[in-house]
Design a protein that fits this description.
Blueprint (H helix, E strand, L loop, with lengths): L7 H22 L6 H10 L8 H10 L7 H13 L3 E6 L2 E6 L5 E7 L5 E4 L2 H9 L10 E7 L2 H19 L1
Parallel strand pairs: 3-5
Antiparallel strand pairs: 1-2, 3-4
Helix pairs in contact: 2-4
Length: about 170
């Protein structure tokens, strides 16, 4: 029997169903209310590709989903999602961003110290190195790695500016 690979859209929908079930089970087990806001926020989080701010999430809910929620509701709901390990919070150079993380517990980021651009990258060598590290009395679930430097766009601008200054001095 041959299996066809799942289409990326179908895989994303499967993850959405799974995280919705995790949230539902948690709320039921802890006798917490299953509010439409919590599920709308969860759906919006898992519809965003990559990192987002609290404001961007609020705008998405308001503009695309036509489901405005207060900043306090967003913050408290994301805090709950972090406890459930459905969302991870990153603190990048003066800004706080969030990211859906149910299907990805390993996060490696490169951050430009000039423009602040953040891009995620994958490295099998880093994953293997961290998997082989033995930590005393601690079970690893995942990791976040931040590599700071200068992106190629900013480096090109800096080089161009330096060449221009050098040319101006020589005249």
């Amino acid at each position: 029997m041959r299996f066809l690979p799942l289409h990326p859209h179908q895989m994303k929908e499967d993850v959405k169903v799974t995280v919705k079930n995790i949230l539902t089970n948690y709320l039921e087990q802890n006798q917490l209310r299953k509010t439409p806001e919590r599920f709308a926020i969860l759906d919006a989080v898992y519809s965003i590709n990559g990192h987002f701010t609290l404001e961007e999430l609020g705008d998405r809910l308001n503009d695309k989903n036509r489901f405005p929620v207060s900043r306090a509701t967003l913050y408290n709901t994301l805090k709950l999602f972090m406890e459930l390990r459905l969302v991870i919070r990153h603190r990048f150079q003066g800004s706080t961003k969030y990211e859906a993380c149910y299907d990805n517990n390993s996060h490696s980021h490169q951050i430009c110290t000039v423009c602040g651009r953040v891009t995620e990258f994958k490295s099998q060598k880093i994953n293997e190195a961290l998997a082989s590290v033995h930590l005393k009395r601690f079970r690893k679930d995942g990791f976040s790695l931040y590599v700071y430097g200068i992106c190629s766009t900013c480096q090109a601008k800096l080089t161009k500016q330096a060449m221009k200054r050098k040319l101006e001095k020589s005249q």
